[in-house]
């Protein structure tokens, strides 16, 4: 099987593999040769794959995994950090990915709150001036 891990800026991993393990919101799963075509969104996690007897890892900041008709696996993610030191990836990189994702979630929530407040003010002003046909 061919594995390709890509970010918006580069191809991080491109290699032949014998198996892959990844994680989506429903949990961990594996892919072996002959797997049916498949599409899923990935959680912030570490993907691992075997090439021969050796295991390799890549920390992923979420993303999309596709198993194509030809059995090739493509992972598209915002950020990927490959490495063979699982402790470092788990401790440092995943922690950073998770904190960045949490910060983005807070920013999105605050942005939506600001937009809703602006809409409420516009609607209340429209109601005040409804009898005059003016918006100020």
From TrEMBL:
Q: Which GO terms describe its molecular function?
A: ATP binding; proton-transporting ATP synthase activity, rotational mechanism
* Top-level taxon of the source organism: Bacteria
Q: Which SUPFAM superfamilies match?
A: Epsilon subunit of F1F0-ATP synthase N-terminal domain
This protein's major location comes to: membrane
Transmembrane parts of this sequence: none
Q: What CDD domains would the database entry show? A: F1-ATPase_delta
What are the record's GO terms for cellular component? endomembrane system; plasma membrane; proton-transporting ATP synthase complex
Topology relative to the lipid bilayer, per the entry, is: Peripheral membrane protein
InterPro entries to which the protein is assigned, alphabetical: Alt_ATP_synth_F1_esu (IPR024037), ATP_synth_F1_dsu/esu (IPR001469), ATP_synth_F1_dsu/esu_N (IPR020546), ATPsynth_dsu/esu_N (IPR036771)
Xref: Pfam families: ATP-synt_DE_N
The ATP synthase F1 complex delta/epsilon subunit N-terminal domain extends over 1-80
**Keyword annotations from UniProtKB, A to Z:** ATP synthesis, Cell membrane, CF(1), Hydrogen ion transport, Ion transport, Membrane, Transport
Cell compartments where the protein resides: Cell membrane; Endomembrane system
Presence of keyword Transport? yes
Similarity comment: family membership? Belongs to the ATPase epsilon chain family.
In UniProt terms, what function does this protein have?
A: Produces ATP from ADP in the presence of a proton gradient across the membrane.
Assembly information from the UniProt record? F-type ATPases have 2 components, CF(1) - the catalytic core - and CF(0) - the membrane proton channel. CF(1) has five subunits: alpha(3), beta(3), gamma(1), delta(1), epsilon(1). CF(0) has three main subunits: a, b and c.
Give the protein name, as stated in the record.
ATP synthase epsilon chain
Q: Which organism is it from?
A: Paracoccus seriniphilus
Taxonomic lineage per UniProt?
Bacteria, Pseudomonadati, Pseudomonadota, Alphaproteobacteria, Rhodobacterales
């Amino acid at each position: 099987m061919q594995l390709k891990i890509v970010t918006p800026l580069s191809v991080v991993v491109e290699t032949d593999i014998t198996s892959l393990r990844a994680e989506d919101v429903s949990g961990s799963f594996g892919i072996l040769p002959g797997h049916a075509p498949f599409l899923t969104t990935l959680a912030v996690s570490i993907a691992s794959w075997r090439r021969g007897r050796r295991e390799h890892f890549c920390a992923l900041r979420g993303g999309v995994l596709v198993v194509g008709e030809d059995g090739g696996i493509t992972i598209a993610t915002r950020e990927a950090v490959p490495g063979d030191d699982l402790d470092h990836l788990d401790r440092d990189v995943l922690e950073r990915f998770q904190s960045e994702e949490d910060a983005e979630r807070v920013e999105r929530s605050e942005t939506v709150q600001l937009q809703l407040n602006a809409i409420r003010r516009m609607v209340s002003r429209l109601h005040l001036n409804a009898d005059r046909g003016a918006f100020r």
